[in-house]
# Entry
Amino acid sequence: MTDYLDALARLRLPGIARPEGRIAFLGCGDSLSAALLAQAHGHVALSAGDLAWSDLPLAHADVAVALSWSGRTGATLRAAERAAASGIPLLVITAGAGSPLAELSSGTILLPAFELDAPLPAVGFALHAAAVAALAGDEPPRMDAIAGAVRTALPRLDELEAGLGPEPHGISVASTPDTRAAADLMSLKLIEATGIATRTAPLEETGHVDYFLGPQPHLAVVVADGPAGAGRAADLGAALARNGQRLLEVRASELMPQPGLSTAERCIALGILMAELAARAGDRWGRPAFRGGAVDMSAAHIQVRSGA
# Structure
């Protein structure tokens, strides 16, 4: 992972001018996970598919921001078209210069291209999340600080991997607000890596153990950060354990104790770490990523055709 982090540390975001008013961030998959960082500042993160394929209104936003690494994700393009037709300004975050999505926008934040092979890539999440944080109200996250935080925490991944235990029937990833983006990404990467049914929810929802987790053997991953709510997280974790669930606690502030990290930087670094942990889970349980090629991950079925 060293080459990956060295390359990540050298990346720089373009200059980002923060828009006025409430922003609606639109994305799918990893991009939607990245958009969740905006919620801490009172903005909204919406599934582009929900907006594209339904009559839902754009949630009282002053600005729309569409996220797509390729700039060709069909649902995101259609949602962006709806946003533009509503008359509000449309910004785009993408690495796809000249893509249909970039051509539609009134302003494009062009992310740096990143060509490095990884079993479960998280760089798209990292760069999108950094741009989202800068637009939403944070100081622009520093990619070198994020890479450094990941390096600090990597030795702890062996311990976390051991806590995964044997292959479960299902996985739940519960999070506090400051880690929600990373937890949501982890749930996606666990599905990609293992094919095991995985769901994510706010930590408090795991209190409803009678229907949220059910009686089957289950792995419950609790992803949290600072001291806020730590007591409640401990109580809910103990309740899950009493109900027969295997519990794995991930606390970002312990993994990455650097005092200079912002909340957004730590959450982005945590997302990269959780993607790596998901890959290790697949190896540990003998579950080949994407079910050994049985799942088509070309994304051709969700992207508009070139020139369309």
